[in-house]
Amino acid sequence: MFLDRYRTTAEIERVLWTPFPVDNTSSRTVCVVDLLNDNCPSQLICHEVVMLSLTNLWKHGPARENFARATGLSHRYDTVCTPRILHAMDLSAHLAYFGLLVSYVMHPPSQPVISHDGLEHVGPREILLMLLAASALTRPRLLFNIPFAITLLLFLASLPAVPFAGTFSFSVLLLCFAFHAFQLHFPGVPSPLFLLTVHHSLPFGGFLASGFVNIVYPLLLYFAPIGFLATYWLSLALADTFFMPPSSHFSPTPIETRTTVLMMFFAMCFAVFCSLFIFVVQGRALDDNKVTPWDIYSPRIGRDARVSFLRATIAYGRAPYTFPAPFSLLQMVLVTGPSFVLGRLGFRLPFARAERLLWRILVGPVGLLFALVMLPLP
User: Please, are residues 295 and 200 in contact by the beta-carbon 8 Å criterion?
Assistant: First the structure.
């Protein structure tokens, strides 16, 4: 067996990340890490050497022995942006987008009495919101991309105006806002869980998610009828406000936003209460004597946490030059799009060199700054 003998970090990475053809007649290639999914044997995905290799790649980048020119200044510059740094940059763009979305739903533009055909309501905030939403869609995150796509479509469909308070599009935007608020707690990239020690934070998140699915979700279904009625009665009770807002440069927060924020507050309190309830119900199953912290809650939760970490490592560590948002939008416009179109037309231009140059100009300096900021983190 390969792991029966001592192997260096570079050798293990080459085995995990070297692409090979699916069969002799196909040009499609896969790597060993592509096979480490929910259906692979637990002996492989849970192997300590595999997880140590992924953790090392996540924190420190690829081993230098895997590069022919590993001592050059350009290589050292490139390897500063490890998958962990790239994820932090992606998360920062996500938080900036969320901050702009919060600002918009709290203080949307006032709807004019007489409609105009101009773009006077589309300001820098709205433009940045659409650009960040579009850049997030360039990353293959499937379910998590849905609210970004909805937000972008709502703004594009409302042009030359914007989604005003009281309209259907604004109500849908509030749903996206609520989803984004809770999305940050899911074990999917980008998430603050990956900034912490992953073998502690990801199993903990999986433990709470499993408890919600197996314990809280059936209770919610049981009390769903009265819950919907209570929500409707709450919206009726909040149909008017009993206080005058303080003088501000912004217009008063719409009643729809106030209702959504109040419901989110109660939902957060409910989530905290349910988390404590889950610990009481399933706390006896915790095993502090497990060999690895990944499996402290259960082997199944530990396996799911490893798969989440593997997907994050693949997302930010597979390509030699990964563009996090919002730079991914420029990569799509300047490199990926033209390369695809010209390739279909039969032209073969050196877009790889252009991509590397673009990455070093845009992503590299920001990555250096993030690397300095994240030095104190474990």
Answer: no
